Amino acid sequence: MFGGKIGITELILLLVIALLFFGPGKLADLGKGLGEGIRNFKSSMKEGEGEGEKKS
Asked: What domain range is 37 assigned to?
């Protein structure tokens, strides 16, 4: 468990705890927000790469 790798058992346990703590509706909203944040971050990184190529 403390070897640095997370197995399927640990992931399932974390999901069950999250469901109990947040509830299914709030957990879905949390996942949606996380996905949007990652998408925005990736698009910002691509825009930054494009600007770096234009300056060179």
From this structure: 23-56
26-46 pLDDT, tens per residue?
888 888 999 999 999 999 998
What's the start-to-end Cα distance of the chain, in Å? 47
CA distance 56 to 13: 49
**Of 35, 30, 34, which Cα lies nearest the Cα of 18?**
30
User: Is 6 within a domain?
Assistant: no
47, part of any domain: yes
The dihedral through the CA atoms of 38, 40, 43, 47 has a sign that is negative
Per the structure, the count of domains in the chain is 1
